[in-house]
Amino acid sequence: MEISSIIPTLDWIRSTTISQWVNSGPWIWPTLETLHFTGLGVLIGGLIVMDLRLIGYKRGLPLRTVHKILPLVFIGFGINACTGFFFVVGNPHRYAVNYAFQMKVVLLLLAGLNALWFRLKISPQMKNWTETTESPALARFMGAASLILWFGVGIHGRLITFFG
Amino acid sequence: MSALQWLEQTSFSDWVLTSFVGFPLMLSLHAVGMAISMGLLLVLNLRMLGLFRFISYIFFKRALLLAWTGLGINFLSGTVLFVPRGVEYVGDTAFQTKMALIIFGLLNTGWLHRQLVRESGLWESDLAAPVLVRFWAATSMVIWFGVIASGRLIAYVD
Question: Interior CA angle at B43 toward B71 and B140, to 5°?
Answer without folding.
Answer: 60
